[in-house]
Design brief:
Enolase-like, domain 1, single chain, binds D-gluconic acid, 401 residues, binds magnesium ion, TIM Barrel, 10-stranded mixed beta sheet, 3-stranded antiparallel beta sheet, alpha/beta
């Protein structure tokens, strides 16, 4: 069997998605997600100009060799654009391998290690009462874990808060600007945990996303203040380009830490994992080189008592979610999977067989990944330029969004 053709589909059913579809000379197809929020066309061009021509005629069964060919062959290693493009090819080849074998991909990865994939939903509010209502809606639906975010008094338009049914931070082509105050935030966040624990008790698993806004010593202070509320994790307290920064946070708090949604290779996380500076690694299939490479990251994590907590925001397509679920089901050190349901338009473009039940997601039992792209449906939603916002401090200094 040989790869006969491959094409990139860019569509925007409410938000932009980049999808690679590979077809073999025997008519077997596979799909891979290549979406990089706000930089979609860079990955689309990378695939079309530099990757697809080299795929034609290759044996689709040679997943590892193709991964190494694209990684080593680029000479310019790593980076989100390169690794998302490699991920899309890798994911599509796993899909094809599953279809050829007649098995769901998790069976090729060693089979089921658990009955279902525990997911967390995103509760948020502009105030504590509206946050409590939002948490209650998740609990009613059966969620066992919830991320909680609320706007500190006086701060509007901050990361993670939305009254829209489908949260989407990317909007205008030129980034919108938001204002950030660390003192107001640090003062406020413990109170939302106190309120949610008082209302919902100790067993609901809770997380919170700082979204890279703090310094290490500020993060240490927040982690310590949150200890009474027994978080499952505190996410991205500081940007992690400096992995060593996490040593300082770790010295001061027992609040578990989760990092990695912007990572694209094992090298981004090697110090964090091997020194056990984090508790959950949040890298994803689409941005971290596909199933092949993410499995390698997760295996390293397993050696050091680090569990997984893959990114699963709506800017990763149902193709990525399907692939993540097969991996989550198979690996020994799964922790928690982020899950934000997509819009009805997105679900129609990407027909998929995974399902939510009683707080768990279950991957499709169909051969392969159990997801596809309906290209006629996708064509109804052309690409629209949209960027993520930026953040400034109150005095105008650029900060991390
Ligand atoms: C999360 C993430 C996302 C990102 C988004 C950026 O934990 O879900 O922080 O919401 O902000 O993926 O494109
Ligand atoms: Mg996050």
């Amino acid at each position: 069997m040989r790869i006969a053709s491959a094409r990139v589909v860019v569509c925007s059913p409410g938000r932009n998605f980049v999808t690679l579809k590979i077809e073999t000379d025997e008519g077997v197809t596979g799909v891979g997600d290549a979406t990089l929020n706000g930089r979609e066309m860079a990955v689309a061009a990378y695939l079309t100009e530099h990757v697809i021509p080299a795929l034609i005629g290759r044996d689709p069964a040679r997943i590892e060799d193709t991964w190494q060919y694209l990684y080593r062959g680029a000479y310019w290693r790593r980076g989100p654009v390169t690794m998302s493009a490699i991920a899309a090819v890798d994911t599509a080849l796993w899909d094809i391998k599953g279809k050829v074998a007649g098995l769901p991909v998790y069976q090729l990865l060693g089979g089921r290690s658990r009955e279902g994939v525990t997911v967390y939903g995103h509760a948020n509010g502009t105030s504590v009462p509206s946050l409590l209502e939002s948490v209650a809606r998740f609990v009613e639906q059966g969620y066992r874990a919830v991320r909680i975010q609320a706007s500190p008094p006086g701060m509007t338009d901050i990361y993670g808060i939305s009254t829209a049914p489908i949260y989407e931070p990317a909007s205008s082509a030129i980034p919108s600007e938001t204002i950030w105050s660390t003192p107001a935030y640090l003062d406020f966040i413990p109170s939302i945990f106190a309120a949610v624990r008082a209302e919902f008790g100790p067993s609901l698993r809770l997380t919170h996303d700082v979204h890279h806004r703090l310094t290490p010593i500020e993060a240490a202070r927040l982690g310590r203040a949150l200890e009474p509320y027994a978080l499952t994790w505190l996410e991205d307290p500081v940007p992690a380009e400096s992995q060593e920064a996490y040593r300082l946070i770790r010295q001061h708090t027992t609040t578990p830490l989760a990092v990695g949604e912007v990572f694209n290779s094992i090298w981004d996380a090697s110090t964090l994992i091997s020194e056990q500076l984090i508790d959950y690694i949040r890298a994803t299939v689409v941005h971290a080189g596909g199933i092949t490479h993410l499995r390698r990251v997760f295996d390293l994590a397993a050696l050091h008592h680090v569990r997984t907590g893959s990114h699963g925001a709506t800017d990763l397509s149902p193709v990525c979610m399907s692939a993540a679920l097969h991996l989550d089901l198979a690996i020994p050190n799964f922790g928690l999977q982020e899950y934000m349901p997509h819009s009805a338009e997105t679900d129609a473009v990407f027909p998929h067989g995974y399902r939510f039940e009683a707080g768990y997601l279950h991957p499709s039992e169909e051969p392969g990944l159990g997801v596809d792209i309906d290209e006629a449906e996708a064509a109804r939603y052309p690409y629209r330029a949209a960027s993520l916002p930026v953040a400034r401090l109150e005095d105008g200094t650029m900060h991390n969004w």
